[in-house]
Amino acid sequence: MKKTILSLVTAIVVLFSFSNASLAAGATYKVQKGDSLWGIAKKHNITVNQLKTWNNLKSDKIELNQVLKLSSTDAVPAKKQAAKPASAQKGYKEITVKATAYTGSCKNCSGITSTGINLKKNPNLKIISVDPKLIPLGTKVYVPGYGEAIAGDKGSAVRGNKIDVFIPDHKKALQWGTKTIKIKVYY
Fold it and tell me: Within 13 Å, how many C-alpha atoms sit on residue 31's CB side?
């Protein structure tokens, strides 16, 4: 009888040990080749700003095999909810900007954004290049004539109230031209 109780207690201890370990493992992510903060955030239904805050990141650069926290250690784990589309979020600010277009397939272009998104492998993504001092990287933005996008790139010519929308087709990017539009930046 004592052996049965001892075996049962041991089994329960082992079971709880593994379940706690899997919970702890689920709250972190090990950076893989080709990952970006934006991709990791999207995969785990969180924002780039949350990832940066929880991991004390000052830039968007991440290292291969780096372990990132996927939640705040101070917060009580909340029930995971589906991400709301930007248009359903509560707050936004409107900014008038000059909007041009770019492509990831130009001469001397790598096709990789400053946040690590591979535009050549993901031509259907809606990505805009912004001045991070005005619009933080990872922010959802609504651009009239383009749709909902993520501020996922920054460019040397993108300063102040200027954005560049990513359009994979060179001809269509040229057709976009230069427009002065009012965008919605969600927070």
Answer: 18
